Amino acid sequence: MIKIWGRNTSSNVQKVMWAVGEIGLSHERIDIGGPFEQNREAAYLAMNPNGLVPTLEEDDGFLLWESNSIVRYLAAKHRAGGLEPVDLRARARANAWMDWQLSVLAPAITPGFVGLIRTPPEKRNHAAIEESKKKTTEAIGILDAELAKSAFVAGDAFSYGDIPAAVVANRYRQLVPERPEFKHFERWYAVISARPAFKDQVAAVPLA
């Protein structure tokens, strides 16, 4: 049985847990990081030198960190789960959108998320929060334009490429209720949010 080290409120842990749910893997998730701490202790740093979550641990002692890498690894190992596109070009597109989430979408939303969810009202930097909302909305506009061309980010089928952006989309829709009408994005999100693994591992977890 695999172990996933990380608290379920982490968006990066949610990516992995969603993939685990889609594939149907037996697993144990262990709370660590955030309010649970322990992620800076020597035992955890020996597994993940960054001291971040998540970390995947397999029965034979194999360890892997970085959420998108874990998702790709599990999808490749368990191809019957259908997360990894078979077509090389679709796979490349899926990987590109996973990287885009790390380089564009996550940095855009993080200041707003931290400001609104993890900062007391009297200490919030409202200018930074509004700028974060603006940048995230611009990024979602890029995603919306792509989704005008295909049902999912890599083509006509759901894949691991959709997972990182959809985890952030869950936060965006809660944090920015005054967002523009992105009809392609909303169509995609409606389909995504109906998936049982998304409901269990992402939507059911309060922002914290």
Strand content: 5-15%
Mean pLDDT: 98
Q: In this structure, how is the largest beta sheet organized?
A: 4 strands, mixed
Strand order of the largest sheet: 2-1-3-4
- Helical content band: 40-55%
Architecture overview:
- The protein has 208 residues and is an alpha+beta fold.
- The protein has eight helices and four strands; from the N terminus they run E-H-E-H-E-E-H-H-H-H-H-H.
- A hairpin with a 5-residue loop joins strand 3 and strand 4.
- Helix 1 (11-23) packs parallel to helix 3 and helix 5 crosses helix 7 (183-192).
- The radius of gyration is 17 Å and the shape is globular.
- The mean pLDDT is 98.
Keywords:
208 residues, alpha+beta, four-stranded mixed β-sheet, 8 helices, 54% helix, 7% strand
Task: Please render the helix and strand layout as text.
Blueprint: E1 2-5, H1 11-23, E2 27-30, H2 42-45, E3 55-57, E4 63-65, H3 67-77, H4 88-117, H5 126-147, H6 162-175, H7 183-192, H8 196-203
Parallel strand pairs: 1-2
Antiparallel strand pairs: 1-3, 3-4
Helix pairs in contact: 1-3, 1-6, 1-8, 4-5, 4-6, 5-7
Please summarize what this structure is:
With 208 residues, the protein is an alpha+beta fold. 54% of the residues lie in helices and 7% in strands.
